[in-house]
């Protein structure tokens, strides 16, 4: 069942029913100011940090779903409705929500009154713009009362939700004409405030939630809206809101437009205030004046669209598969950008109050983003590296506002260091910027302990190389990629859980997954060493990689597939000897994509075992059989019910590893099968089962053991986005950046014929046409560049050449 459709021309997904199975959201903003907006106008806004600088309040886990957003109540006689359906839920004559790239448009109608609401965050300004147009499509005059509504969060979202004894006394506002200023904390911090304004004279306002809604009422039916008149309330303590009342008369056929702006203002440190508690309105008014006409709003929207068109022009596919085209050209890259901005901090499944920017998460997100804006990728790499410790380990997360390590989460996730090598190598391949290796970067954000980025990579490599267990496999620490596999939390103190276990550092549990990472990214580190002339170090690195390769073969192979790990007692995890959890997805994918077991014939056995034991119609499960009881020696993984999350759920993030591994073996049909099973555009028809947005990836789909097999959760902010784009662009379509050029080596379904790719790479444009006349799955017969046939699959970098016309014949 569908609840909408793709509009590829306008790069939009059009939702045609407001009551989707879950709220289907979009992200507004690409710089410092961000908003989440659902298909019913729910969501919230923040500046840089969703925890510390949140502008508007949102109620997670509430009933009804998706409670609080930006609402515009329209009252005509006895009818009250809103353009996004929520919160009033009046039956509408028309409804659509168009989620585009950085903007959303709602179009609704009731009683021949048309409402069109445009929402977006403009480039290089810290505000959300809401342009509301009302048009009278009847042949009679209409008298309308319009009420806007946002509820201000008291900045710190955690304190806002918990510290009521204080917060019920600190709300402060000022009102100046059509401008409502939320200045809670201004008395204390004196450097920021919010403004909510409209470009029209108002007939009234409210800033007190109690006055606007009324006692024992809700946003579904506020007293002020029912009465048709604002109270001009000034919030003093209690809960501040922003609401404007505009009385409108529309003649037949007449349309009027109103521009509402919610903005964040940060004063320069040397600014002069009018008094200790009256804000300086000048910077806010300068902001508002930039968007006070329809022409200015339309110009800002055009610049936003041009920005996205420019970004998406870096990689473009033309094939006879519309679903593949729209995912590659639009939605997958868009999600990569959003995930790069947000990490895992702020979605409808992450409240934005706990997790910051993940070390591992951000490194992986960069893999799918680096081709879009390399300069921002460079900046992110340096931020990530600065949260590393001198021994090469790292904070698992850091806060986006301070860029300092998150002490609450701490360290000890032993896969983290190797991900830094992964993202730096991807950046250098994309840009050729070897100079980044010479950048001075502090350890633990202590400038006195700064070393070159190359030294950070060296310590990343050596951390793993010097933290080996009894089988010469890497120690897992608190966990590896799977945060829920806590193999060293085997002797919890009273009151301690796997989440707070403190004895992981002394544990001897080992990870085959980290071993596979070490092989793959150890090779990349060796190439970087060789690139800058460190021949002796290159040889030593490759020797360590070879030793790890052999350790995997000796102690990480279980006969038909790769083991997952050894626990703290050196008992096997992910073995046929286990009652549950006999086979895991992670080592099968990562070992093979790292090349482990390919020449020995083990790789094919491992992937065949994946298909036989882990595959389902909705994707590849993380493990089988599912754990049916809690195992203290395994930690959180066995705390989930069978079929959910890490306990045999379909974890979409690592499905691309299996697809990539299949391309290593040249099995294009199977690689594409794995790709398409979790790809939103290919499963749009089962939206009633899948439930999350049909235009972006989710983190998890319920596995075969779950009651709701096929149901997805945790959409938008997931490493699935980056890894899937790497998979489809570099391994399936085969366009892979290298240190010395661009290589072309597709691995595609046999049915795929000719396709074209435009790829911008290192200040040049590559127009690549790939023909598959023999309908093979993999193999390049010939490669022609600007009329000259080349040896192999690498398009070399030619001095001064800015356009490459490339023809590839597969066979």
Automatic annotation (TrEMBL):
InterPro entries the record matches: 6-hairpin_glycosidase_sf, 6hp_glycosidase-like_sf, Gal_mutarotase_sf_dom, GH65_N, GH94_catalytic, GH94_Enzymes, GH94N_CBP, Glyco_hydrolase_94_b-supersand
Sequence intervals crossing the membrane: none
Domain Glycosyl hydrolase 94 catalytic, residue spans: 307-734
Keywords for the protein's UniProt record, in alphabetical order: Glycosyltransferase, Transferase
Glycosyl hydrolase 94 supersandwich domain ranges (all copies): 11-292
Classification via SMART domains: CBM_X
The keyword Glycosyltransferase belongs to this UniProt entry's keyword annotation: yes
Origin superkingdom: Bacteria
Alphabetical GO biological process terms: carbohydrate metabolic process
Matches recorded under PANTHER family: CELLOBIONIC ACID PHOSPHORYLASE, CELLOBIONIC ACID PHOSPHORYLASE-RELATED
Name recorded for this polypeptide: Cellobiose phosphorylase
Species of origin: Mobilisporobacter senegalensis
């Amino acid at each position: 069942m569908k609840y909408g459709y793709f509009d590829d021309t306008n790069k939009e997904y059009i939702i045609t029913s407001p009551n989707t199975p879950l709220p289907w959201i979009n992200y507004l903003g690409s710089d410092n100011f961000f908003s989440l907006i659902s298909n019913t106008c729910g969501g919230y806004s923040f500046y840089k940090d969703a925890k510390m600088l949140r502008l508007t309040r949102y109620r997670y886990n509430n009933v009804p779903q998706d409670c609080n957003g930006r609402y515009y109540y329209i009252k005509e006689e006895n009818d009250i409705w809103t353009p996004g359906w929520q919160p009033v839920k009046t039956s509408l004559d028309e409804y659509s929500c168009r989620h585009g790239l950085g903007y959303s448009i709602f179009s609704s109608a009731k009683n021949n009154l048309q409402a069109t609401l445009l929402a977006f965050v403009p480039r290089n300004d810290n505000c959300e713009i809401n342009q509301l147009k009302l048009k009278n499509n009847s042949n009679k005059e209409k008298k309308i009362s319009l009420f806007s509504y946002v509820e201000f969060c008291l900045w710190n979202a955690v304190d806002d939700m918990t510290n009521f004894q204080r917060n019920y006394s600190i709300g402060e506002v000022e009102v100046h004409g059509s401008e409502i200023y939320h200045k809670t904390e201004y008395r204390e911090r004196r450097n920021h405030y919010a403004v909510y304004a409209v470009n029209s004279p108002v007939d009234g306002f409210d800033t007190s939630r109690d006055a606007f809604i009324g006692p024992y009422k809700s946003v579904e039916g506020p007293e002020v809206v029912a009465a048709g008149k604002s109270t001009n309330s000034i919030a003093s303590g209690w809960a501040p809101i922003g609401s404007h009342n505009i009385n409108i008369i529309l003649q037949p056929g007449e349309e009027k437009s109103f521009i509402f702006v919610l903005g964040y203002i940060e004063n320069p440190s040397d600014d002069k205030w009018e008094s200790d508690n009256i804000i300086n309105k000048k910077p806010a008014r300068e902001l508002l004046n930039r968007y006070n006409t329809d022409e200015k709003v339309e110009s800002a929207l055009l610049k936003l669209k041009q920005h996205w068109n420019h970004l998406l022009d870096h990689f473009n596919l033309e094939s006879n598969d519309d679903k593949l085209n729209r995912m590659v050209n639009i939605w997958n890259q868009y999600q990569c950008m959003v995930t790069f901005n947000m990490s895992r901090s702020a979605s409808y499944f992450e409240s934005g109050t706990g997790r910051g920017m993940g070390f591992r998460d951000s490194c992986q997100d960069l893999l799918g983003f680096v081709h879009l804006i390399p300069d921002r990728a460079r900046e992110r790499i340096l931020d990530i590296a600065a949260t590393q410790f001198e021994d090469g380990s790292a904070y698992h997360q850091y806060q986006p506002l301070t860029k300092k390590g998150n002490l609450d989460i701490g360290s000890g996730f032993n896969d983290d260091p190797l991900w830094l090598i992964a993202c730096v190598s991807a950046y250098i391949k994309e840009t050729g910027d070897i100079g980044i290796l010479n950048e001075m970067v502090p350890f633990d954000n202590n400038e006195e302990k700064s070393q070159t980025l190359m030294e950070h990579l060296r310590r990343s490599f050596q951390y793993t190389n010097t933290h080996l267990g009894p089988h010469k496999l890497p120690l897992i620490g608190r966990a590896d990629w799977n945060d829920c596999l806590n193999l060293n939390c085997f002797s919890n103190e009273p009151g301690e859980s796997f989440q707070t276990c403190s004895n992981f550092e002394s544990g001897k549990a080992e990870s085959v997954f980290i071993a596979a990472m070490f092989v793959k990214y150890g090779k990349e580190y060796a190439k970087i060493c060789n690139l800058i002339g460190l021949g002796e170090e290159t040889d030593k690195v490759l020797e360590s990689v070879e030793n790890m390769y052999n350790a995997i073969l000796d102690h990480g192979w279980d006969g038909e597939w790769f083991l997952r790990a050894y626990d703290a007692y050196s008992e096997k995890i992910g073995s046929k000897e286990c009652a549950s959890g006999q086979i895991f997805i992670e080592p099968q994918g990562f070992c093979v994509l790292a090349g482990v077991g390919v020449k020995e014939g083990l790789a094919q056995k491992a992937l065949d075992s994946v298909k036989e034991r882990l595959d389902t119609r909705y994707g590849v499960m993380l493990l089988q059989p599912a754990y049916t009881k809690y195992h203290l020696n395994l930690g959180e993984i066995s705390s989930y019910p069978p079929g959910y999350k890490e306990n045999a759920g379909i974890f979409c993030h690592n499905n691309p590893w299996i697809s990539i591994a299949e391309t290593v073996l040249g099995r294009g049909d199977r690689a594409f099968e794995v790709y398409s099973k979790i790809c939103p555009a290919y499963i749009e028809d089962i939206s009633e089962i899948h439930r999350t947005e049909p235009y972006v990836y989710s983190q998890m789909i319920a596995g075969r053991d779950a009651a709701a097999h096929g149901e997805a959760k945790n959409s938008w902010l997931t490493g699935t986005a980056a890894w899937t784009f790497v998979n489809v662009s570099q391994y399936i379509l085969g366009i892979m950046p290298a240190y010395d050029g661009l290589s072309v080596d597709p691995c595609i379904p046999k049915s795929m014929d000719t396709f074209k790719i435009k790829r911008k790479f290192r200040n040049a444009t590559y127009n690549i046409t790939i023909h598959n006349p023999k309908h093979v799955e993999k193999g390049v017969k010939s490669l022609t560049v600007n009329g000259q046939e080349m040896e192999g699959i690498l398009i070399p970098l030619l001095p001064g050449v800015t356009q490459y016309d490339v023809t590839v014949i597969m066979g």
